Sequence to fold (367 residues):
Amino acid sequence: MRLSKKNLLAVLALVTVPLFLLTAALITMLKEWEGGTAAFSMILIALSVMELLLGSLALLRWQQEHLSRPFKKLQEAAGEIRDGNLEHELEAPEEEEFSQLFDSFEEMRLRLKNSAEEQLRTEQDGKIILANISHDLKTPITAIKGYVEGLRDGVASTPEKQARYLSTIYSKAEEMEKLVDQLYFYSLVESGRIPYHFIKIPAHAYFSDCRWELKEELDAQDMVTRYENRVPEDVMIAVDPEQLHRVVSNVVSNAVKYRDRSKEKNTIGFRIYVEGKTIVTEIEDNGVGIAPEDLPHVFDRFYRADTARSASTGGNGIGLSIVQKIMEDHGGRAVLTSVKGEGSCMRLELPVYEENDNEPDTDRGRR
Ligand SMILES: Nc1ncnc2c1ncn2[C@@H]1O[C@H](COP(=O)(O)OP(=O)(O)OP(=O)(O)O)[C@@H](O)[C@H]1O
Ligand SMILES: [Mg+2]
Fold:
């Protein structure tokens, strides 16, 4: 136990006073000072013994109190935690030697409190997303029911009409599939079990394929597409193609969803190039853009810059949080810049795979 200054002084007094008295008694005895003072020496010895006894008793009592007070406080604080009260703050102890123990206890309480709050937030987030997706599912289900009824009741009387109805049903079913997929993927992110399968592939070819896969959707939305891929054909990346595709697709779907309908042309540009040891993919749109006060939050789960607009466009505010998580798991990052009214640019950075890097861990998922 470390002694504080105050306690050190008390112990010193307890030792030095009887020592002083004993020395005085000894000197008096030796010198027979002021004649026949054996009785005086005896008194001094008796006084020092008494002082020692009383002092030890006082020290024992003080020690007991000194120890029991902080332990009582600790016991109370532990009881509060046991009863589920994580708000009870443990005050710093008067006794310096207990400060480290109290600090550790407080740190433990704060950690417990944070993890309990995080768990609560996650549960609430889960409920919100479930409610949102259930709500979003209603729209395509209602449409599918309507078109099926049209077919069943003969409203779609001509083969052309029937084909149109069927193609609408198909696209509505696709919409539902996307929503269910999003919900499923969200649950994987939440439980930290994204199933990654990393492979080594040429970056140039990968992004070209991505572009062709997205072309149909972009054309259907009348988006004018620009595409520039300056990555040399032999430059490799170690990625999970499916999850990286999810990243690109989330960013592209935002460019489509948040396009500026007042503009004559809605554009989306892809620029892929190498910068040092990084493959940079820039996806730029001329959409509505994001206000500076919203920009720092768009990667947060459930953050939607304009809730009113998002209510009409759908969306749960999780697309970009997924983008960020996947990019980080690939050893890269996602950076969004935007100017309100002008457009946004997503910069996705991935490390170039080098021959002396470890072979990609093909089953890095399930973490
Ligand atoms: N390209 C963009 N242009 C304008 N605003 C954007 C763009 N990308 C994202 N945002 C803003 O950032 C918010 C968060 O985007 P995010 O993709 O995470 O969610 P969402 O699109 O609302 O829903 P979800 O992707 O889950 O369907 C959006 O609600 C929107 O306000
Ligand atoms: Mg989105």
User: Anything to note?
Assistant: The longest helix spans residues 99-152. The longest strand covers residues 266-275. Residues 199-351 form a domain with the Heat Shock Protein 90 fold (CATH 3.30.565.10).
